[in-house]
Target: histidine kinase
Amino acid sequence: MENKDFNKMSLRDMEEYTPKGRRSGREHARNMSIKYKLASITILVALIPMVVLIVLMLFFYNRAIMQRADKQIEENIRIMSDRLSSVLQNGELCSNNLTIEFGSYYNDKSMKQVTRDNKVISQLSQSLLIYNGITSIVFIDRNGAFYSTDPAFYPESVNIKYSSYVLGLSDAGGKTVMMDISENPFYREGKEVITLGKHVLSTVTGTHLGYLFINMNKDYLIENSQSEISYYFLYDSFGNIMKKENANDHIYEDEELIESLLTTKEKLIRHNNETYLLSKSAIDKYNMTVVGITNLNKFNVTGRDLKFIILTTGSFTAVLLIISVWFSANFVTKPLKVLHDGAEQIAEGDMSVRFRFRTKDEIGRLGRIFNYMTQKNLELLKQVDEEAKKKREYELALIQEQVKPHFLYNTLDIIIMLIEMNRSKEAARVTHKLADYYKNSLSGSEEIVSIEREIQIIRDYLDLQTMRYGDKFTYEIDISQDICDSKIPKMTLQPLVENAIYHGIKNKSGKGKICVAGKHAGSTVELTVTDDGIGIPETELMKLNDILGKDEGFDSEEKKMAKEAEITDHDSIKGGSHFGLYSVAKRIRLYFGKEYGAKIISNENEGTTIVITLPFGE
Model:
C-alpha cells in the first residue's frame, strides 16, 4: 500500500490492516478483545486445576481398583491352582492305591483268573465311588485283559490298547502323568475327559502289571474354577486349552483370544470394548497352567457411577464458571468499551468527547487522563493553527519585503534611462528579466519548490542587480546536480542575496563578489551564500546566531533584537536589513523541523557566509 493511501486510512482501517505474511495465531491472540482475554485466562486458571483434580481422582481410583483387582485375581488364581492340584492329586492317589491292590492280585500265584478279574472290577468300581471328580477308570493288564468302569469303552478296547496313550506310558517309569488331551481315546461326544495315566509296576518285584487310566470330567474341573466376573482356563504342556463346553458366555466363543492368553505378556487386554485383568499360575507337577481373566468393568461396579458423578459435577461447575466469568468480564470491560469508542471518536477528530466515570479505580483514572490529554490535544491543535497562520504571515511579509517599491522604481528608472539613450534592446532585456523575476517569485500557489527553481529566481534577481550595479560586483552559482530535486521553501535564498548586496558589497570600497553554492552532505543539503563585503562585528554576529538558533515567536525575536543586539542598519528590525534572514530561518524550522535552519559565519572586513541546512531528498 502506498504511503499516500495509508495516510488516508481511518483508525479502524489501520487497526484492521495487517501486511501479508504477518498474521498468525499468536498475533490473533494479542489482538483479541480484553473481555475475551480476561474470560479465557480466568476460565483456564479455574478449569485447569479442576480438570487436573478430576484426572488425578480418576487415576488414583483406577489405580486402587487395579491393585485390588490384581490382588484378588492373584489370590483366586492361587486358590484355583490349589483346588485343581487337589483334584489331580486325588486322581494320582487313586492310581497309587490301585497299583498296590493290583500288585497283590497279580503277585498271588494261587489266585484264579476269574477271581482276579472280579477283584479288579470291584476295586475299580469302589475307587470310582471313593474319589470325587473321577468319571471312569480303565485298566489294561499285562496279558491284554481290558477292564473298565464304563461299559461304553469295551467296543473301543482294541483301539485303546494300541493308542498313543499306551505306547506313551511304556517309558513313564511308574509315575502318574497327565496325558495329551488332543489325542484322548476316551473322549466321547459331550463327555470330554482329562486323563491321568500310569504304567503299573509291581511294588515288590517291579515287574510290568499293565496300564491304568483315570478319567476326570473336564467340565467338573472347569466348573470348580468359575465365577461371575472371572474366567479360568487350563492349558496343558502342549498348549492345548481345556474349556467348558456349551458355555453361554461370549468369552468362550472367541478362539483367537483364548489361544493368545497363554503366550501374551500384557497385563490388561481388551475384548468387546471391555477391559480384562490377566493372571497366570503354573501347576508344575502336572505341566499345566491356569490362566484367569477378570472383567474390570464388572469388578468396578461403582466406578461408572463415580465417573458419572465426577463428570456431571465438573461439567455443571464449568458451565457455572463460564457464565459467571462472562458476566464478570462484561462488568469489567464495559467501561473499557466506552473508553475505546470515545478514543476512536477523538482519533477521528472529535475533541468534544469527555469521559464521566464515577468510579475512582484504574479505569476511572484512565478516563480522567484521557480527558486531560484530549484538552491538551485541543490546545495543541489551536497552537498548530496559530503557527500555520504565522507561517503564512511570514511568507506574506517576505513577499511584501521583496516587492519593495524602491526596487521596482529603481529598475523602472533604469528602463526609462535606457530608452532615452536609444538603448531599446537593453531596456527590453531589463524589462524581460524583471518580468521573469516576478513571474518566478510570485506565481504559483506552492510553498515548497525545488532547489533548481529557487536558483532560477536567484539568477533572475542577480541579473537585474548586475544591470543596476554592474561595476560593483560579480556573482557565481555552483549547485551540485544531485540536490536540484530536493525541496526548499520558496524565496529562501533571495533575502540572503539581497542582504549580501546591500549590507556586504554596497558598503565596500572596491568591487565585490557573491557566490551561491550547494552540495549534498550526508542526509542533509547545505546551501551557502557568501560575499567578500565588510563582514559583521563579532559581538553582533554572536547575538545574531543566538537568536537564529532559538525557536521563539517572531515578535519575541524582533523585540530581543531591538533591545539586546541593537542592530539598526536601517529603520527597525522588522523593516530593516535582517528581517529576511530571521524569516528564512523560522520558515525552514516550521517546514522541516528544529534540526534544520540557518547560521552566519563572518569575519569583519573579510566577508560573510550564511549556511542553510535542509533535509536531502524531501
Summary: The chain has a mean pLDDT of 77.
